[in-house]
Amino acid sequence: MQNGSSLSVAESGYLASEKFDDDGRIKRTGTWKSATAHIITAVIGSGVLSLAWCFAQLGWIAGSITLALFSVITMFNSILLTDCYRSPDPVTGKRNYTYMDAVKSNLGALQYKLCGIAQYGVLAGITIGYTTTTAISMAAIKRSNCFHQHGHKAGCHVKNNMFMVIFAIIQIVLSQVPNFHKLSPISVVAAIMSFSYSLIGIGLSIAKISGEGMGKTSMTGIPVEPNFSGMEKMWRTFSALGDVAFAYSFCFVLIEIQASCDTLKSSPPENKQMKKATIAGISASTVFYMLCGVLGYAAFGNDAPGNFLTGFGFYDPFWLVDIGNICIVIHLLGAYQQKEMAPKQTCHRRLYLVWIQYQYVQACLENKLRDRNDDNRYDISVF
Question: GO BP, one example (predicted)?
């Protein structure tokens, strides 16, 4: 064993064995392939559905450059983070189990608090977006069946509130599953769902182009006209940039993915495996993003809907649109749990510390009362 690894083991008080890693946790068994599945699950999300609309706002040139640029930035940032999983040495140092742990080890306590606020704020926004998107997809299934029965001009208005409540109840149930993050098949299923609804969107776009021809497109997006002001163009451009950024909101959970018990075993070194998984996962995601954005924009042109599966750019075949929305729902059920993993672990850790403190106080009180009066025993509880 290397010297650095020996120090890490000695400091933690554990010895690596066939069943346990050097930090005393159950031995990690995953490879870069399982990590790639986690990454694809985290990267490819509901953001892919709005990329055609983003291209409509940005145009062919800026849209393609923006997607490529965010892909490179995300990949570069992720590769840097893979070396922060262990510190100070990226191969033999002490493990950091969360993004905030990595910040604290490398930047100090103040940055730890500031980054914690930023990370949890971003993750809260993402999970809210997932909740809204899932509810919209559920409602779209009901509307699609209504349009199929009563025609495309029927009202078929459906409120999303009930579906948000259903999604929340399901998430409450899933959050009670112990060690949910260890269920690697869930990430595989979620990744399959991601590819499925992306491929459905791509296929429907190709079918629309083949049947109706390309929509009206532009190198610079929707042009400024009397009924479309320059100010509105500017705000839509910023909104499109935000949608692309949302589509790549992944780096905040990379450390948690790398630390999961089913993700990466320690030989070969985790950082090398994770770099390989990051390149594979983000590259595959970018290819799908580019196909969805380019083909969606080519199919709808400047009239591209904000979500081409729920905005009813496609009505038929209705069953295929329904399958696409079902895939979105299944994917976001797992992705929501993955995104909330960091805040949930922090809450559990803090509640556990509070519980230990209360147990200690209770034990001290019981011992003190027992010493005062050996004849009268009191069973008290501060809870």
Answer: amino acid transport
How many helices and strands, by DSSP H and E, does the chain display? 12, 2
Q: Is residue 197 part of a domain?
A: yes
Residues 6+ apart with CB under 8 A from 124: 343
Residue with tokens 């990379």: 254
Q: Is 38 exposed, middle or buried (0-12, 13-18, 19+ CB in 10 A)?
A: buried
**For residue 352, what are the domain limits?**
347-383
| CA 48 – CA 10 distance, rounded (Å) | 46
The amino acid at 205:
S
| Whether the Cβ atoms of residue 190 and residue 177 lie closer than 8 Å to each other | no
Residues 267, 30 contacting (CB under 8 angstroms): no
Spatial distance between the Cα atoms of 349 and 169, rounded to a whole number of angstroms: 24
d(CA 326, CA 138): 7
Q: Cβ-count burial of 265 within 10 angstroms (0-12 exposed, 13-18 middle, 19+ buried)?
A: middle
> Are 143 and 240 in the same domain?
yes
Same domain, 100 and 37: yes
User: Are 219 and 321 within one domain?
Assistant: yes
Residue 162 corresponds to which tokens in the numbers above?
Answer: 């009930």
- Does residue 368 belong to any structural domain of this protein? yes
